[in-house]
Amino acid sequence: MAVPLMQAVRVGAYVVKQHLLGRKRYPLVLMLEPLFRCNLACSGCGKIDYPSEILNQRMSVQECLDADAECGAPVIAVAGGEPLLHKDMPEIIRGLLARKKYVYLCTNALLLEKKIDDYEPSPFFSWDIHLDGDQQMHDVSVSQEGVYTRAIAAIKLAKERGFRVSINCTLFDGADPKRVAAFYDEVMALGVDGIMTAPGYAYERAPDQEHFLSRQKTKQLFRDIFRLGKGKKWRFTQSPLFLNFLAGNEQYHCTPWGKPLRTVFGWQRPCYLLGEGYARTFKELLNDTHWDDYGTGNYEKCANCMVHSGYESTAVKDAIARPLHLLKVALMGPETEGPMAPEISLAHQRPAEYTYTKQVEERLQEIKDRKKPVTPPKVRILSSNDSKLPQDSVTAAD
Ligand code: SF4
After folding, report:
1. Residue-wise pLDDT tens digits, 175-221
2. Interval between CA 144 and ligand 1 midpoint (Å)
3. What integer best gives the mean pLDDT of the chain?
4. Which of 13, 34, 117, 140 sits 20 to 30 Å CA-CA off 317?
5. At a CB cut-off of 8 Å and minimum separation 6, what does 109 contact?
């Protein structure tokens, strides 16, 4: 199994409990980005295009633990930026594991060998290695040669040391289904515990805007890949119904609150992919975000999104509602032939708003304000003989 049985049982029990409690919106996975700084500059990444004042910001250990306490999701994905650049990362991970959270530490693996002794294997902990395909695909994706080789060496090392390891594979336009299938075979042969896969989201700040997939192309690509995987034992960390959605067999609407994101800015609205504002608390994020403004069909920036951060939680909810359907897809795999589910109409989506510059200016101002020296209030030293004041108002004895 890509996910340990106990994890599946505990997460399943959490989901059922939320339904029994009648909660309309609840988080499934907390996405935690304690820094934006990275040691790579991938062409499809929209996360690192900030001024250095922002890239130098870090969430403290306490802020990370507080984010977990506020959110309460059973699973936490720690990402970034590159989380292994955060000097307190081992302490953050230890704190989350002590609370029995299932933690995925998402890394490009360049620092893994150097830092591996700071971490211990646990059924609650998994390295999640960024790997966007075979050597050529991945090195192109991260815009640097040699990264694939180092990631593979890191996977082998982590497996030798007894860690759980999954890979995080984002696919872009032009991906060849045969090569992707061969790559999945290869990582399975390495003993990787699970594959998390998704199409890239069209980040407006990503340097390469030419290779993001449309929804139609995404569905066809995954159908072609899954067809080649029939009879193979590929293990995915995602739910079978999400994979069925990727293959064009489900008409799902986005559930952006299912994977809420906490960054150095606060709680990002509305989701992991889109930063259109920030809430100070998780409660404020849930209660005050205009959720109906987002999702495919509602907003131009969501038009081509089929990423797990929006749709995995929808698939999990569907699994509760249609357990027999889940069982069928889990046993047979995603459907790869026949008509696809109808696409959501984009006729009434609202046009994109571009808020990046305003948000960066606001954040820079906040950072400046935090740095301003605080002038202490003027205190008048009173004498106990001061007859105009009661005795308990005297702040300093003469
Ligand atoms: S569809 Fe959902 S997950 Fe995707 S960008 Fe829009 S709000 Fe975010």
Report:
1. 999 999 999 999 999 999 999 999 988 887 788 777 888 999 999 99
2. 29
3. 91
4. 34
5. 127, 129, 130, 150, 151, 154, 155
Distance CA 133, CA 44 (A): 14
If DSSP codes are grouped into helix, strand and coil, which group holds residue 314? helix
The CATH number of the domain covering residues in 5-358: 3.20.20.70
Distance 98 CA to ligand 1 centre (A): 32
The tokens of 58 are what?
Answer: 């870090």
Q: Does the beta carbon of 295 sit less than 6 angstroms from any atom of ligand 1?
A: yes
* Single-letter code of the amino acid located at 57: Q
Kindly list the domain boundaries of the chain, sorted by start residue.
Answer: 5-358
Distance (Å, rounded) from C-alpha 311 to C-alpha 344? 14
**CA separation for the pair 101, 90 (Å, rounded):** 15
Q: Is 142 in the pocket of ligand 1 (CB under 6 A)?
A: no
CB 44 within 8 A of CB 203: yes
**Ligand 1 binding pocket includes 271 (Cβ within 6 Å):** yes
